[in-house]
From TrEMBL:
Protein name listed in UniProt: PadR family transcriptional regulator
Superkingdom field: Bacteria
InterPro entries in the record: Tscrpt_reg_PadR_N, WH-like_DNA-bd_sf, WH_DNA-bd_sf
Pfam families on file: PadR
Gene3D superfamilies assigned to the protein according to its UniProt record, in alphabetical order: Winged helix-like DNA-binding domain superfamily/Winged helix DNA-binding domain
Ranges of residues in domain Transcription regulator PadR N-terminal: 7-82
Length: 179
């Protein structure tokens, strides 16, 4: 879904085509590589958005000795759906990676609603983590099993602390109007 939010948000600014977006994603930080976004994925999502009537082809650029480029624009329905898709990103977020595109496009939504959604996600995440940490396994384990357990508990505790910290930081930045 974040790819579709990315495409729609770019089309809010102006018309474009998949290859152009791929180039934009690679500069100055290779977001395409970090997010595993390939050109074929972009084409797939452009097609899916067009089938839903959220975007439409508006022009074909023909260049000699090159494939035609189909340029897209956002529709009225797409403008209406963009905020809903952004809110869904925040509603379903499990960590900061899931909300990066939403944070980058917060101008299209109500920041107070986003804070409310993130606070719910944060509370759910903390409650889930508390349940996991309070689980007592009373089965007998050998030394290797205990070592593995310690390793995994350490890893997941650090990951959880990291997620909580960055969700709280995102909420704070939104509340302060910095995003």
């Amino acid at each position: 879904m974040s790819i579709q939010v990315f495409i729609l948000s770019k089309l809010m600014i102006g018309k474009t085509y998949p290859y152009e977006l791929k180039k934009q994603m690679a500069e100055p930080i290779p977001l395409d590589e970090l997010g595993g976004i390939t050109e074929s994925k972009l084409y797939y999502h452009f097609d899916a958005l067009a089938k839903k009537g959220l975007i439409e082809p508006v022009e074909i650029i023909k260049e000699e000795h090159r494939p035609d480029k189909q340029v897209f624009g956002i529709t009225a329905k797409g403008r209406e759906e963009l905020p809903k898709k952004i809110y869904k990103l925040f509603e379903s977020a499990n960590d900061i990676n899931d909300i990066v595109i939403g944070l980058a496009n917060i101008k299209y939504v109500d920041p107070e609603k986003v804070v409310d959604l993130l606070n719910v996600r944060l509370a759910d995440y903390k409650a889930h983590w508390d349940r996991i940490m309070n689980f007592e396994n009373t089965s007998h384990r050998d030394k290797k099993s205990e070592n593995l357990n310690e390793l995994l508990v350490g890893y997941f505790t650090t990951k959880s602390d990291h997620t909580i910290y960055w969700l709280e930081e995102a909420i704070k930045q939104i509340e302060q109007g910095n995003l």
